[in-house]
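Final report, Chapter 2: Outcomes

The project's central promise was a pipeline that accepts a single protein chain and returns its three-dimensional structure in a standardized token representation, suitable for archiving and comparison. That pipeline is now operational. To close this chapter, we reproduce one record exactly as it appears in the project archive, with the input sequence first and the structure output second.
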Amino acid sequence: MADNPVTTFLKWALPRLGKDWAGFQQVQGQVESRLLDRLQVLGLRSFSAYRDYLNAHPEEWARVDAMSRITVSRFYRDPAVFDALRDDLLPALAHEHQAHGHPRLRAWSIGAASGEEPYTLRILWRHALRDQFGGLSLHVIATEVQPHMRQRARRACYSHGSLRHLPDGWIDRAFRYHAAHDEGRHAEPYVLHPVYRRRVTWRPDDFRAAMPDGPFALICCRNLAFTYFDASLQRWTLRRLLGRLRPGGLLVLGAKETLPAGDWPLAVLGSSRSLYRKQR
């Protein structure tokens, strides 16, 4: 069966951005709607005409790159991963930091969207671990290139659906229900208490171009580089991440992601192949 025009265009365009078409097959609809809107704005009638436009206006490639960013985010997404962090992996890191006199754990959440992942880490630390490690704090650097996502993160208002994987009792403790926000199709009535937004620093980095300084004890790079980037860009990304991960630190991938081929100084933890420790 022949590809439809959107698929044909994406198979042509994505490799030119260092992205892998295979990662987009399940989420093509997100990208397709944005592309169709863009064609309408430009007054173009076909994707063939858009290809010609790109050849004549190379600055447009930055917009194609932006339109191919995928955002799917929830609190405590992939519960088994966060359970392992809560029960074993973060406590081990905390004990090590205390033994060496370090006052804080540093984490980096890449592609942090509207805050679900970095705020999950802060909620987890405060509810499950803080009292065990008095004097030690968790600081999270959250990088997100899209301004509207950072704006949503600062509002910290969420729908019940985005909270549904949080452990029992955590919603009531970490959020207040704001009835005025519970209206319409995009209702977001759950507002994160300000205490959980503390020690989360937001940066507008596209981590292909700029990364915060390490070292980090924990780096979460989930459902981004190792899903949507091609093999060469994945390897480049992983080398850069390893340079910012302290020995013994944790690298967290998405539940369906794997490391690119190569000999990496990482040991897989458990059976999910989402959790790795940097070898010493």
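Archive annotation: The first strand starts at residue 104 and ends at 110.
This record, like all others produced under the grant, will remain available to the consortium after the project formally closes.
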